[in-house]
Design goal:
It is built from 4 helices and 10 strands; from the N terminus they run E-E-E-H-E-H-E-H-E-E-E-E-E-H. By secondary structure, the chain is an alpha/beta fold. The longest helix has 18 residues. The C terminus is likely disordered.
Length: 223
Amino acid sequence: MATILNIETSTKNCSVSIAKDGVQLCLVEENEESFAHGEKLNQFIDWCIDGAEITLNDLDAICVSKGPGSYTGLRIGVSSAKGFAFGLNLPLLAINSLQILAEMQINKGFDLIIPMIDARRMEVYTAQFDTNGNQLTDTEAKVIDETSFEELKGKKIVFVGDGAEKCQEVLAHLDATFVQIFPSAKYMCEQAEKRFEEKQFEDVAYFEPYYLKDFVAGKKKTE
């Protein structure tokens, strides 16, 4: 039984929630093309604390989305989470970003839940989950083409995430539903509570985001 601050910044969505005993008290989030996480995250945390009508001293733990996802977004979210955990002397929890997306589709009648976080062009970060949200395959960076997931023909599948829509035409050979949506701290509440009860704490000093791929800087545009 805990009051937990949840932070999700693995995509364009900057998302913060506070939950007590796994039940959400407040949610503040916004997605922008400009990735304004560095400017808005701490403000969103302040708003969420006020909205939940608690203080920082009422928190029992900090939970952060660990990736995969945006290098910059993850770095900002994890840095903030570690700062709060260290400053308040609280345990740090972490959830795979794909698990957060899978939580959105649990028990909705699908055989498989396949989250997809956009990794540019036709590449996505992905893994497979069963209808109860249990992860079945390793997290990977996968280039999607007409042969992808052929072994899953005949199964009822939902592809969910900000990388789902761009794959819809290519994966037309599957019996699949495509849900274009961003991960949200709203769907971290139950998993964070479970991890707290099981004491699945991270080492605050050494914890790093799960980038999956090395950071590649884009070329500066010419005037």
